C-alpha cells in the first residue's frame, strides 16, 4: 500500500476490505502482531473515556476446549443469554434485510432453505469459530447496559479494522453470546460479567465461496435524513 495515498483512499480501502470471513486457515496469528492490533484498538472512542470493554483472547488448547463446550451447550439446548434477544425488536425492513443476508449466505454455502440438518451444522460451525485459530470474547462489567454496549461495539469495529490493516480477517458473532455461562465457565470469567459478542479471527481461506459474498448496503436515503444541509458545496481540499 502506498504511503502517499490520500487518507480518504486509505480509509475507503481499509473500511471496505473488512468483511465477515467465515472460513479460516489454521495458521496462528503471531502474538506480537495481535498485541499491536489490540494496542491500536484501545483508541476506540468511549463514553467519558470509560473504556468498558473486557477482552478475553483465546488460542490453542483453550480455544479448542471452548469450542467443544459451546458445541455441547448448543447440542444440549443449554442457552444462556445476558442481553435479551427477540424477533420483536426487528422492524419490517430489518427482517427483510436479515432474510436477504441469510439467502446470500446459504446460497454461497450451498444449503437449501428446507435443509434443517445443513443449517444446524452451520450453526455448529459458528461455534467452531469457522475454523479460526483464535477468538476474542467481549465482556462488560456486571451492571453495564446498552449504553456501555455502544462503547464495546465501537471497540469491536476498531479492533476489526486494526486486524484488517494487518491482513487478519474476522467475523463478529452474536451467536457466541448465546452461551454466556459456558464461556464464563471455560474461561474462568467472574460470574456477573456480561458477554456481549465474540469475534473469530485469523487468516482467511480465500478459496472458500463463503468468503466471497458482497453483502449489500441500503442507500443513504433509507437511513439518513438531512436537516437544512446545503447541497453541492464540495470543499476545495
Ligand atoms: C454484532 C454482530 C453480530 C454478528 N453475529 C454474527 C453471527 O453470529 N454469525 C455470523 O455468521 N455473522 C454474524 N455477524 C456478521 C454480519 O452478518 C455481517 O456483518 C453483515 O452481514 C454484513 O456483512 P459484512 O460484515 O461482510 O460487511 C454479526 C455482525 C455483528 C456486527
Strands of the biggest beta sheet: in what spatial order? 1-2-4-3
Find the CATH superfamily: NADH Oxidase
Going by helix content, strand content and strand pairing, the class is: alpha+beta
Number of domains: 1
Q: What is the makeup of the main sheet?
A: 4 strands, antiparallel
Distance between the termini: 22 Å
Q: Using the coordinates above, name the CATH class.
A: Alpha Beta
Number of E-state strands: 4
Kindly report the CATH topology.
NADH Oxidase
Bound molecules: flavin mononucleotide
What proportion of the residues form beta strands (DSSP E)? 5-15%
**What is the molecular shape?**
globular
Average pLDDT taken over every residue: 95
Count of helical stretches: 7
Q: What is the string of SSEs from the N terminus onward?
A: HHEHHHEHEHE
Q: In the CATH classification, which architecture applies? A: 3-Layer(aba) Sandwich
**Poorly predicted residue ranges:** none
Give an account of the 3D structure.
This protein has a four-stranded antiparallel sheet with strand order 1-2-4-3, with helices on both faces. The radius of gyration is 19 Å and the shape is globular. It has 237 residues and is an alpha+beta fold. Helices cover 41% and strands 11% of the residues. The longest helix is centred in the middle third of the chain and has 20 residues, at 146-165. 27% of the residues are buried. The two termini are 22 Å apart. It is built from seven helices and four strands; from the N terminus they run ααβαααβαβαβ. The mean pLDDT is 95. The chain has helices at residues 7-17, 31-41, 60-75, 92-109, 116-127, 146-165, 180-187, and strands at 54-58, 134-140, 169-173, 194-202. It has one domain (20-213): NADH Oxidase, CATH 3.40.109. The structure holds flavin mononucleotide.
